[in-house]
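FAQ: What does the model actually see?

It sees only this:
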Amino acid sequence: MEAALTKKDCIITSYRDHCTFVARGGTLLEVFAELNGRQAGCSRGKGGSMHFYKKDSNFYGGHGIVGAQVPLGCGLAFAQKYCKDEAVTFALYGDGAANQGQLFENLNISALWDLPAILVCENNHYGMGTAEWRAAKSPAYYKRGDYAPGLKVDEMDALAVKQACTFSKEHALKNGPIILEMDTYRYHGHSMSDPGSTYRTRDEITGVRQDIEKEVRKELDNAVAQAKENPVPESSQLFTDVYAKGLGVEL
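And it is asked to produce this:
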């Protein structure tokens, strides 16, 4: 995706925001410091896992409410068109959020106003822990746009993703919104409490997975160690970053 974009383009996503933040130029130290509530975190230790942020790269997070990032993403696309930025917004959501009403409301107004919005459904087939065929009567999410075109893309193929994003950006700038369904696979469970094997077999997981963890484990361990040594925010920071500068309390 990043290979098809510039930093003028916006990305907004769900609480699965960690790798997207790194792809936008964030560091591992900023990741782990934020996870540990430390000052060096990308949100100064006050956002936590679900609220990563990188303003200089137009990465707007990390959102904990299922599907709520889509309306914000369409708002970013509105701002881009209003300001004539010649840039687009990629709003990412999972298959578990694909039935949210707010998604369709915002796709409708984005199509009415020809906003440069690309709605990306990252379909890992299991949502929080429910197979897509049990949650959606029609799991062909790229066809859900009706009046907006859609593409299904093999997200496990980096070159296919790049090509699809390049095409989608060109389309959105000229014609308005488009939907991308990124067909992918989740190796782990939804959360720490989910072993990931109650609704699928271990053979299925190992059949898809290719183990590259050893190559990056040393780098990750080093970043974790630095994050733990970083101080927590000062108590005076509790009331900062609440209002825009000049519009609220400044300490």
